[in-house]
Amino acid sequence: MDYSAVAIALVGALAAVNLLFTFGVIRRLREHTAELARMRGGGAGRDDSPVALPAGSRVGDFIAESVDGRPIALDSMGTQPLIGFFSPSCTPCKERLPGFVAHAASRPGGREGILAVIAGSPDEAAALLEQLLPVATVVVEPDRGPVQQAFGVDGFPAFVLVDGDRVKVSDFEFTSITDADAVPSIR
């Protein structure tokens, strides 16, 4: 009988230790979920750090070359250009891309007032390029390239609406950009 009492006590102790480990794992999963939500730019744990230059900031100077060989600068894009920054390895970029493409296709002025910047090598950018090229002027540049630096991009996706040489609105969510884009430029 002593062996069965010891075995029951041992199983009970193991169950208690297992329960403590389970609570620890659940706590860590919650921390990871909050961190992932913050990194993706939404949900619980989101901080308010900007993904690009905040509204009112002056956009830095840049000159880039589009995939079709044309030089691109901010002053060549009209008075209220829309700029989207994407990365081929970014899941939120792929989720928000259809909304960007649809809005860009319906936006007056055509491709000249819309710039899509893909951070990565041309090989990595091929799938995004195929979707963006019909609706936007596209630049493929390395991570932290000159266009990303000019707009202070610190994450992907990043969407920026410019008024003149100043940021009108910037966000990782495209809905705030479309709302601001519906308001005409003051200039």
From TrEMBL:
Residues 53-187 form the Thioredoxin domain. The chain crosses the membrane at residues 6-26. The keyword Aminoacyl-tRNA synthetase does not apply. The keyword Nucleotidyltransferase does not apply. Keywords: Membrane, Transmembrane, Transmembrane helix. This is TlpA disulfide reductase family protein. It comes from Micromonospora robiginosa. The lineage of its organism: Bacteria, Bacillati, Actinomycetota, Actinomycetes, Micromonosporales.
